[in-house]
Design goal:
- It is a single chain.
- The chain is built from 10 helices and 10 strands.
- It has about 280 residues and is an alpha/beta fold.
- It has a single domain, classed as Rossmann fold.
- The strands form 2 sheets. It has an 8-stranded mixed β-sheet with strand order 5-4-1-6-7-9-8-10, with helices on both faces. A two-stranded antiparallel sheet has the order 2-3.
- The chain is globular and about 45 Å long.
Length: about 280
């Protein structure tokens, strides 16, 4: 199944959570001079035009990045995130970067980026959006399998983002299984799984699978724009982070209440949890 295209959803609240966590992790990794590998298993097109027919059909960005465009709060992480998105635009909000372009912003000459995408149209766009740097490699392959071939990396440092389309229910368990497999090969890497909350029972199973895997030091961050319901699609999304930066939990404890304030309905909520201790 290759029907999912992120162009319909770019810049929505789920993107904000995902990319804010991603930026925090990558910023932390660049504090050390030594290079690292960034592996994006399900990359998408990389950059999205919000005036496109796809984005305008759903206009999900109006409930996401558009509400933060003029953010005047004092949360440093949120200010930095908004400024990052603005760097892809001129005066007005016209473009939203996907995780590959967010990563490119942070990656240095000594770092490597690996980007996987199977959708034929998005693969072409990704190749166009990521061209020009030899350290960034785009592959039209299955990212689940591609990850296993890249760990352990020669750099001995790695950040992995796993963001499958969840077109099929088994993606939830496959994400957990593949992260556990990669972690066994390379225990010191930082691994992130983004997930949508459509059915809470699937998320409970995803969490329990990771807890039962024996992996240590797992954190979970979730933003719900409304209370759980299985009546009308996604109500929340989350990021599970294995081996997170020691700064991440404190940062997200401060960011998530702001995101609920700006992006959620009255019954929205957030979760910031140490799922498994170190």
């Amino acid at each position: 199944m290759l029907s999912y295209r992120h162009s319909f959803h770019a810049g929505n609240p789920a993107d904000i959570l995902k990319h804010l966590v991603l930026s925090q992790v990558l910023e932390y990794m660049t504090r050390k001079e030594s290079g690292f590998d960034y592996i994006d298993t399900h990359s998408g097109a990389g950059l999205f035009e919000l005036n496109s027919a796809d984005a305008q059909k759903t206009q999900e960005y109006l409930d996401g990045i558009a509400k933060l465009w003029d953010y005047q709060g004092e949360n440093t992480a949120l200010v930095d995130y908004v400024q990052l998105i603005k760097s892809f635009n001129e005066a007005n909000l016209s473009f939203y970067p996907g995780s590959p372009k967010i990563a490119e912003h942070h990656l240095r000459r000594q770092d490597k980026g690996w980007f996987f995408e199977l959708h034929p149209k998005d693969l072409v766009l990704l190749q166009q959006n990521m061209q020009g740097k030899k350290s960034l490699r785009v592959r039209g392959e299955d990212g689940f399998k591609g990850l296993q071939a890249l760990v352990p990396p020669a750099s001995k440092r790695a950040v992995v983002l796993m963001d499958p389309p969840y077109e099929i229910k088994t993606d939830y368990q496959q994400a957990a299984t593949m992260i556990a497999k990669a972690h066994k090969r390379f225990p010191s890497g930082t691994y992130m799984i983004w997930y949508p909350v459509v059915s809470r029972s699937r998320i409970d199973l995803l969490e329990q699978t990771l807890i039962d895997s024996g992996i240590r030091n797992i954190q979970l961050f979730e933003l719900a724009t409304e209370q759980d319901t299985e009546q009308h699609g996604m109500t929340a999304s989350g990021m599970i982070v294995v081996n997170p930066p020691w700064t991440l939990k404190t940062t997200m404890d401060a960011v998530l209440p702001e995101l609920v304030k700006y992006l959620s309905k009255a019954d929205g909520f957030y979760r910031s949890e140490q799922l498994v201790d170190e």
